[in-house]
Design a protein that fits this description.
about 325 residues; single chain
Length: about 325
């Protein structure tokens, strides 16, 4: 079943191959924070000490968004849709507990069930880094304890209960709104349905990081898609190339970066970097990407369109599982 008119069928396999076949799709994504998310390990925000740019050799600390902080929320969005449209039942495939092994999520994003089998993920995501430095990208909040009468008690203050002095609960670093994380999501050996499945998951995902029910709002802005016969540049190199193109006076300002400027420089940077690549690639970036994005959004915005994509992806996953995955007794996932 063909869904897209703007793309040549040569970019896709007709079925999911068992062995690597050298077809790659790279989704060029800029993740924009819209609240105060937490990308942390052991209570501290993840960060890395790296060079500011490719040309600018200054060393700075950048916020880091580890790969699982990106891929897990996206695959959970896909799993939710599969359940909504009755392609996966809640009791037959539970994430990190008991994988079904034959649905689009398991086959595209992979699974591991100890001795019972595993499937390597066809979606590759690497650590993403903030364009701006750690100091300009985060702030510290003091978390207080509220009482039923509406008052807040912090260290050294009188609480709502007479005669008692309470202490603040905690201090926590949060990432500021309008911090930008350039991120390349790679899909290996795609069919058209798996391409649309992953594309839709990226577009729909809205929350990343810890405490996703309360904060962590992030918007994904795609600026292009690259079809290639190999992997392309890293997130870090793309981020550094963007940094080099932003005027120093803007980078040194306390104000957040302007989104239009970031998207413009992100597009310029990736186009320049792709010219240096030595692989075969076809790029849909900037204006050439607009018609493809519009067509994909048109498909995924209707119930008829999204169900047809999910049903095709499910058919392909079950065909693949029937050929290549040995069915065993349902086993708890290894965690």
């Amino acid at each position: 079943m063909a869904f897209l008119k703007t793309l040549d069928s040569k970019f896709f396999h007709t079925e999911i191959p068992y062995k690597p076949m050298g077809k790659y799709i790279h989704f060029l994504t800029v993740r924009v924070t819209e609240s105060y998310p937490l990308f942390q390990t052991d209570g501290e925000l993840n960060k890395a000490r790296v060079r500011a740019g490719i040309e600018d050799k200054t060393t700075i600390s950048r916020l880091s968004m580890f790969k699982r902080k990106q891929s897990t929320p996206e695959r959970l969005v896909g799993r939710e849709l599969l359940r909504k449209y009755d392609l996966v039942q809640p009791d037959e495939c539970e994430y990190n507990v008991a994988f079904g092994m034959d649905n689009p999520d398991c086959i595209i994003y992979g699974f591991a069930i100890g001795d019972s089998g595993s499937e390597k993920s066809k979606v590759v995501v690497d650590t993403a880094f903030s364009i701006t430095s750690f100091d300009e990208s985060h702030e510290t909040f003091t978390l207080n304890a509220p009482y039923e009468n509406g008052t807040m008690a912090s260290k050294g203050e009188q609480g709502s209960k007479p005669g008692e002095v309470t202490s603040r609960i905690n201090q926590q670093d949060h990432i500021r709104p309008q911090v930008f994380f350039p991120s390349i999501v790679t899909l290996k050996d795609p069919t058209e349905a798996s391409f649309l499945y992953v594309f839709n998951n990226i577009l729909r995902t809205r929350h990343y990081g810890a405490q996703t029910t309360r904060t962590g709002r992030v918007r994904n802005e795609l600026i292009g898609v690259v079809f290639a016969d190999g992997e392309i540049i890293s997130n870090l190199r793309w981020t550094q190339a963007i940094y080099d193109r932003i005027p120093p006076e803007i980078l040194q300002s306390i104000d957040p970066l302007e989104e239009g400027l970031v998207m413009e420089k992100a597009t310029e940077a990736i186009q320049a970097l792709m010219q240096e690549e030595f692989i075969v690639h076809t790029d849909f970036i900037g204006e050439s990407f607009a018609s493809l994005l519009s067509e994909v959004k048109g498909l995924t915005a209707t119930e008829e369109g999204i169900t047809s994509i999910l049903q095709q992806a499910d058919t392909e996953a079950k065909t693949y599982a029937g050929k290549h995955i040995k069915k065993k007794e349902k086993t708890k996932a290894k965690t």
